[in-house]
Amino acid sequence: MNVGPAAALFKHGAAGANTVDFGTMSDRFHPRGHPRIRSAAIPGLRAPALRLFQAPSAAFAFAAAVVRNPRGVGAVAPASRWLADAIGRELDGCGCDTLVEVGPGTGAITRVLNERRREFSRVLAVERDEWMVSVLRERYSELEIVHGCATELARHVRSTAPVAIVSSLPFKSLPEEVAEGCIRALADTMDTAPGSMLLQYTYGLGSPPFASPAPRFVWRRVGLVARNLPPATIWRLDHVGTRTLTGAR
Ligand SMILES: C[S@@+](CC[C@H](N)C(=O)[O-])C[C@H]1O[C@@H](n2cnc3c(N)ncnc32)[C@H](O)[C@@H]1O
């Protein structure tokens, strides 16, 4: 059945052994709740009806962002816990100094980055949507949450030591000029810091999220996660010839 994004969130929201984990939905329905998330205020909220939601869950922020900007979000639901954990495993032994997430949404994957934050000198997340930034700052107060656009990644990450980039950017639905700007920014960051890597997931089994930005880069498929809505493929972009400790499959 083809359900709308918000309907899909709530239809599958209850946490259980065999349910897809929406992370933030299970937070909402957790018996003890998540006071920090529930107390998050939405900046710029004006419509009186919406003020009822001054204490939104992360799930509400996600659904609202989908309604406001479906192409910018490009997903019907946050990443599952299985997808987040699989992406986390790809960071094992990566030898990177900085960890940056672009397009973290409400933070389903950020959870794993937060758990591993002590393995890196710096961990930050760059999100364009103001509501999501608000939720992320409530959920992950230990992390540096930047309200900004991935096209300006170079302003936020100037490292010459290897950078691990985790991206949830919806390249296949973003406007072309934004997608191109993001790809350029990702490639520039990787070129500035040799040994860097990019992890990105796509839905289904198809092709990489975008064509290799230059012949010096190469994509590899490093994971398939069936327990996600929809099932997802994890892709990794490296400089050609980079010998990696992980994922050389
Ligand atoms: C697929 S959603 C992220 C889902 C996230 N992995 C989760 O599970 O909650 C894509 C996110 O990318 C953000 N985004 C889109 N374009 C962006 C850009 N140019 N810079 C930064 N964030 C962007 C959207 O606001 C949205 O939060």
Task: Give a description of the structure.
- By secondary structure, this protein is of the alpha/beta class.
- It has eleven helices and seven strands.
- Helix 8 (110-115) links the parallel strand 1 and strand 2 (122-127).
- Residues 1-55 and 245-249 have low confidence and may be disordered.
- Bound molecules: S-adenosylmethionine (SAM).
- S-adenosylmethionine binds next to helix 5, helix 6, strand 2 and helix 11.
Please describe the topology of this protein:
Elements: H1 5-11, H2 24-29, H3 35-38, H4 48-51, H5 58-68, H6 70-73, H7 81-89, E1 98-102, H8 110-115, E2 122-127, H9 130-139, E3 144-147, H10 153-156, E4 163-167, H11 176-192, E5 197-203, E6 217-225, E7 232-239
Parallel strand pairs: 1-2, 1-4, 2-3, 4-5
Antiparallel strand pairs: 5-7, 6-7
Bound molecules: S-adenosylmethionine (SAM).
CATH level 1 class label of the largest domain: Alpha Beta
Beta percentage is 15-25%
Helix segment tally: 11
Number of domains: 2
Question: Under the CATH scheme, which architecture of the largest domain would be assigned?
Answer: 3-Layer(aba) Sandwich
Poorly predicted parts: 1-55, 245-249
In which range does the helix fraction lie? 25-40%
SSE topology string? HHHHHHHEHEHEHEHEEE
Tally of strands: 7
The third-level CATH topology of the largest domain is Rossmann fold
Rg calc: 17 Å
**Overall mean pLDDT:** 80
Please state how the strands of the largest beta sheet are arranged side by side. 3-2-1-4-5-7-6
What are the bound molecules?
Answer: S-adenosylmethionine
Using the alpha-carbon principal axes, give the shape. Answer: globular
Largest sheet: 7 strands, mixed
User: How would you name the CATH homologous superfamily of the largest domain?
Assistant: Vaccinia Virus protein VP39
